[in-house]
Amino acid sequence: MGAGKRGVLTAAVTVVCAVTVLAVPGTAFAAPTPPPDPGATASVTVVTSDVELEAVRKKLDKLYRAAARATDEYNAAEEKARQQTAQVVRLAKKITEGREKLDDLKSRAGAAAAAQYRGGGLPPEARLVLSDDPQEFLDGAGRVRQEQHAAKGLIGEITRTQRDLEQYAEDAREQMRKLEAGRKVKAAAQKRIERQIEAAEKLEAELEQEEKERLARLERQAAARAQATWLSSGVLEALSSEATPQGRKAVAYATAQIGKPYQWGAEGPNTFDCSGLTSQAWLAAGKTIPRTSQMQWQHLERVGVRDMRPGDLIIYWADASHVGMYVGDGVMVHAPRPGRTVTLAGAGSMPILGVVRPDPEAERHPE
């Protein structure tokens, strides 16, 4: 990003931080508490203060984070299922080819047996011994050796092919067992996702509209406070705005999805979850990376936060259950959670576990 854009974004972050400091819970900026509705049912939660709303915010955050962890497990199971299905297909092809080869070998063996039968049923050695012609004997000895060698080779090839077929069949059965186990893991993860999201949505549904607005403000304030704390460490001063060509393509793809809804398990083109967005962005840039945030954290090269560049992935929370893409100037793009859309946010607005780089081998080029 250019110096002008950097200045605008830095100024915007400064304003957000200033608003955050002034608009802390309990100040004059907090909306007045509405009186309880005498006709409200017992199932409606009556929130009387920002302190209680803050507790709701934390509970929602906990529920959605649990859903994110289950989503990562679901996505990992889905990815394994794809790989295992492809392996089963490859093994099935090998089995088919092996059977065709075995049929051909057996046909050749049958032809050799038929030829021997047409020769009077005597083996070549016996016919050779009965020959009265010395030259015929010598010529025949060479042919016998060749025939014996060919017969042994044919028998050996049949044996190897049968052994390969047995191994392919066992491998296919093992892959099918894994595939079935993976389906169970995926189904269990899906139930946990749906249960956590349902609980979160039920909690939000019990809030009055005014309370939802105050809750949204508390969420923004919490994110802004975290971003302000992160920026106060001076990290932005050390960050580089240089990106690799692939990094720029990945950022361009990710930011082009802004406004599209979050959907767990989705990889686009119309909806995304957090790692679906980052993996598809890098795929659009010509680089295949792991599907889930946890796998991205485990398998991609790690770099220091102060060394990150646009296109790098920021992994959040101790369990690596969320990921965003750094776009420069202390900002990242991510798919936050159910009920939200792909958006820009402060890179430090959540606890950072670390940063990984999909293209460590590439050289940086100034934008």
Strand line-up across the major sheet: 1-6-2-3-4-5
Q: Work out the radius of gyration.
A: 34 Å
Biggest sheet statistics: 6 strands, antiparallel
Count of helical stretches: 9
Distance between the termini: 6 Å
Number of strands: 6
SSE arrangement, N to C: HHHHHHHHHEEEEEE
Class of secondary structure makeup: alpha+beta
> Which consecutive residue ranges, at least 5 long each, have pLDDT under 50?
1-47
Strand % is 5-15%
Name the average pLDDT.
77
| General shape | elongated
Q: What portion of residues is helical?
A: 55-70%
Please outline what is shown here.
By secondary structure, this protein is an alpha+beta fold.
Which helices and strands, and how do they pair?
Blueprint: H1 3-22, H2 50-118, H3 124-129, H4 134-205, H5 209-232, H6 235-238, H7 245-256, H8 274-284, H9 293-299, E1 301-303, E2 313-316, E3 322-328, E4 331-334, E5 343-346, E6 352-357
Antiparallel strand pairs: 1-6, 2-3, 2-6, 3-4, 4-5
Helix pairs in contact: 1-5, 2-4, 2-5, 7-8
Written description of the protein model:
With 367 residues, this protein is an alpha+beta fold. It contains nine helices and six strands, in the order H-H-H-H-H-H-H-H-H-E-E-E-E-E-E. The longest helix has 72 residues, at 134-205.
